[in-house]
Amino acid sequence: MKIRIGILGLGGVGGYFGGLLAKAYFKSDIIEVVFIARGETQKAIAENGLKIITDNSETTVYPALVSNNAKEIGELDYLICATKTYDIEESLLALRESIVAKTIILPLYNGVDAPERIQKLFPQNEVLQGCVYIVSMIMLPGTIKKIGFYEKLFFGSKTAAKTKLEVLQTIFEKAKIESYLVDTIEETVWEKFIFISALASATSYLDQNIGQILNNAESKRIYVALLHEIESVAKAKGLQLPDDIVDQTVNKLEKSPKEATSSMHRDLLAGRNIEAASLTQFVVNEGAKHGMQTPLYQEIASSLMTK
């Protein structure tokens, strides 16, 4: 029996990492990669494959199947989820027939609330924790562009069988995905969340890209202030983060492509739905739960939640 892997959400994250999997296991006798997409994306991939553009290459990959029909997709062994956070419930419930008892779900969303939300929908399934560091985006339906060299995937679980996790890690490694199976995955996910939450909130609120924030003293002050607020929330939750997490995060930003911005900022500019509930308001809500004040996050959330 083949190991069947579904990729839900063919945006910058799902499209890029799913594309690497599809490329590595094209016509494999062991692994089958299924793209779960609809509309123009499904049509483009079905007709022409998924195109991945990097700084120095252009590749077209083909999944075993591209579909949005759970009956056609069939049962999955692993499901990698990378839609927008506001689509979690609707997109996963549409796949109920494909998510069976054996299905292991790996969320790769921007927020940190996804595993809990997914576990409520599918209490019998193993839901891992995971995050990625990458600058990538949809150029056209069926076309993904990745900027820069940075591409790391982290995942783990406190409850899943080690053998199942190691199988997935081997699958990733053979697809040349730089992946890490992490014991302290909650802290790792929160380190990424601190980075992306502050960046998404700042870029969207200020309407500036990474370079503009770094080169404007007031903008950088706002970004760093957000980092301190979210750091206080994480520590109030009892997470064991590095003492210099703020400095580390600023350093990550300084190494990022200056012309890049957050996906939430791109969505805002395009007039699309944005992930402010999971990336900005969530920090305010978590702070309130643990008695931590987050006034700047509150101000930005109040602005973005009305967009």
TrEMBL record:
The keyword Cell membrane does not apply. It comes from the Bacteria. GO terms for cellular component: cytoplasm. The keyword NADP applies. It catalyses: (R)-pantoate + NADP(+) = 2-dehydropantoate + NADPH + H(+). Its EC number is 1.1.1.169. Residues 185-304 form the Ketopantoate reductase C-terminal domain. Keywords: NADP, Oxidoreductase, Pantothenate biosynthesis. Pathway: Cofactor biosynthesis; (R)-pantothenate biosynthesis; (R)-pantoate from 3-methyl-2-oxobutanoate: step 2/2. Residues 5-156 form the Ketopantoate reductase N-terminal domain. One of its GO terms (molecular function) is 2-dehydropantoate 2-reductase activity. InterPro entries: 6-PGluconate_DH-like_C_sf, 6PGD_dom2, ApbA, KPA_reductase, KPR-Related, KPR_N, NAD(P)-bd_dom_sf. GO terms for biological process: pantothenate biosynthetic process. Catalyzes the NADPH-dependent reduction of ketopantoate into pantoic acid. PANTHER family: 2-DEHYDROPANTOATE 2-REDUCTASE, PROBABLE 2-DEHYDROPANTOATE 2-REDUCTASE. Belongs to the ketopantoate reductase family. This is 2-dehydropantoate 2-reductase. The lineage of its organism: Bacteria, Pseudomonadati, Bacteroidota, Flavobacteriia, Flavobacteriales.
